[in-house]
Write a structure and sequence with these properties.
Blueprint (H helix, E strand, L loop, with lengths): L2 H14 L5 H11 L9 H23 L4 H19 L5 H15 L1
Helix pairs in contact: 1-2, 3-5, 4-5
């Protein structure tokens, strides 16, 4: 990690602890992302993708054990709603991709 990236990460870390309002959150988002939705810190994006892949694997294990069709339909309905919310923001696109994979798994 270069010096500029370290100082930006340090600045973001200190900002995260001070987030108390939506205005603070918007300010933090502008430090993390460019206007086109790309992340300044590619390491963060890689970490987020890894975290969401683990989320997918964990949820998939639970879905395999559900036998009742009505329960599975309810789970898929909730996951679709969550995916649509995650698609609304570029900061949660990795979560939206994982939720999409979970929905496909549940529908099989």
């Amino acid at each position: 990690m270069n010096t500029t990236s370290r100082s930006r990460t340090s600045s973001i870390s200190s900002s995260i602890t001070n987030v108390k309002t939506k205005k603070d959150a918007a300010s933090l988002a502008s430090q993390v992302m460019a206007k086109d939705g790309t992340y300044y810190d590619s390491e963060f994006q890689a970490f987020l993708d890894s975290l969401c892949n683990n989320l997918h694997r964990t949820i998939r294990r639970g879905l395999v054990s559900i036998i009742e069709l009505d329960t599975l339909c309810q789970v898929v309905s909730v996951l679709r709603e969550e995916r649509s919310l995650a698609n609304a923001s570029p900061t949660t696109m990795a979560a939206a991709r994982s939720l999409g994979r979970v929905i496909v798994d549940a529908q099989e």
